[in-house]
Design goal:
With 188 residues, the protein is of the alpha/beta class. Helices cover 43% and strands 15% of the residues.
Length: 188
């Protein structure tokens, strides 16, 4: 029976540092990924959450179009697509579907479905599509998906998600480590 993977896009399939060049240019900063210690970027860029949200809305199509793919993601995802169904579930708004699909085509990535839900609450979508395993970079998403859906969640390690994790959430450093974990999981 084919397993159905739920996979976040930004910071998981795309490189977690994708937005940094845009932030540095727009806010005259010189930050690196190591400087980002929390998911909320407004204190780091020294603007209100509302100002950052507006800037993000204005710039997200270009940022998503130009986001580099995470190291190792393409090879692993192509391999997984042979025997599993890949459902990409993202907090991006649905108005970004064309940009998102074009990015996948540009990087020659296969997908069975892309769901842009416009929210970080991915639980209902994971349940709706009977997801068997989830890959995520946002700590609270990973914890809640594991807890509510009773499925394993691989949390891609970044400086902004290093809070403790409960059982059911597995921290992985990269796509190769995720692939090894998934292979062991599939054998069980």
């Amino acid at each position: 029976m084919r397993k159905r993977f739920g996979i976040d896009i930004d910071g998981t399939v795309t490189c977690p540092s994708s937005l940094i060049p845009f932030l540095n240019e727009a806010f005259q900063l010189n930050i690196t990924l190591e400087d980002i210690k929390e998911y909320d970027l407004s204190p780091l860029v020294n603007v209100t959450k509302e100002e950052l949200a507006q800037w993000f809305t204005d710039n997200e199509p270009v940022m998503y179009e130009k986001s580099p793919i995470a190291t190792g993601a393409k090879k692993v995802l192509i391999d997984w697509a042979k025997d599993s169904e890949l459902y990409f579930i993202s907090a991006r708004g649905s108005h970004l579907l064309e940009v998102t699909e074009n990015w996948f085509k540009q990087h020659e990535l296969l997908f069975h479905h892309i769901e842009l839900i416009g929210s970080h609450d991915k639980i209902a979508t994971a349940q709706k599509y009977n997801i068997d395993i989830f890959l995520e970079d946002k700590h609270d998403n990973a914890v809640e998906i594991a807890k509510q859906c009773h499925i394993p969640v691989l949390l891609f390690d970044t400086p902004y998600n290093r809070d403790p994790i409960p059982s059911g959430v597995v921290r992985v450093k990269n796509w190769n480590e995720a692939d090894e974990w998934v292979k062991n999981w599939l054998e069980k």
